[in-house]
Write a structure and sequence with these properties.
Helices cover 28% and strands 30% of the residues. The protein is α/β, with parallel strands linked by helices and 202 residues long.
């Protein structure tokens, strides 16, 4: 597709390949992003799961943290899954020493809230903005959202806890849709990126 948006996946740690595949299936041009010059070439960015403290430290090491914060402030669409959700939180309830976030979503997030690796689970979720059957959410050492600000929309909950949110051009989920073969959440994000490009391309 000639009008396909170019969407990066922050390739510092985590399930980068799965996100690249899901984005391509959702009609985006998908690229790995590690450095500021690569970030400058994309219309939107996915921040994958992994370990949020490690991603934070590597983002600083690779010189991409400040450019990424600037792009998010300027309105670049961004989507974070699991650790990526933590990276997009304005506040972490229980941060590790020296842990930084990109910010962009007015929410407070609790790390590893659903338990350890061996307590991983799947759950069917009704996600606002995703048509059709419930989304199968894969939760792996997943965070949840303790609270959101007035400008943040709750898209899904599980067991009384917020697990998907959106604020403007920023989207975040506690779960991993890239692991299921269901690309509807990625399609929602691709649509957000495409809509953000429209005024400039007219």
């Amino acid at each position: 597709m000639t009008d396909a948006p170019v969407i990066g996946v922050l390739a510092l740690q985590g399930d980068v390949r799965e996100h690249l595949i899901a984005l391509a299936a959702a009609d985006a041009v998908a690229r790995a992003v590690r450095r500021p010059e690569e970030l400058a070439e994309v219309d939107g960015l996915v921040i994958p799961g992994g370990e949020s403290t490690t991603i934070s430290k590597l983002a600083v090491l690779f010189g991409v943290m400040e450019p990424l914060r600037a792009r998010v402030r300027e309105g670049m669409p961004v989507y974070g899954t699991c650790a990526g959700m933590i990276m997009l939180a304005d506040k972490i309830l229980d941060p590790r020493s020296g842990q930084e976030t990109i910010g962009g979503i007015d929410m407070i997030v609790r790390r590893n809230a659903f338990g350890r690796q061996n307590e991983s689970f799947e759950a069917a979720l009704d996600v606002k903005g995703v048509p059709g059957d419930p989304v199968e959410g894969v939760f792996i050492r997943a965070p949840w959202v303790e609270s959101v600000g007035a400008g943040t929309e709750v898209l899904a909950e599980h067991d009384g806890h917020i697990v998907a949110v959106r604020q403007g051009n920023a989207l975040a989920t506690s779960f991993h849709p890239e692991l299921t073969g269901d690309h509807r959440v990625h399609s929602l994000f691709v649509d957000m990126v495409r809509a953000n490009r429209t005024p400039e391309s007219l």
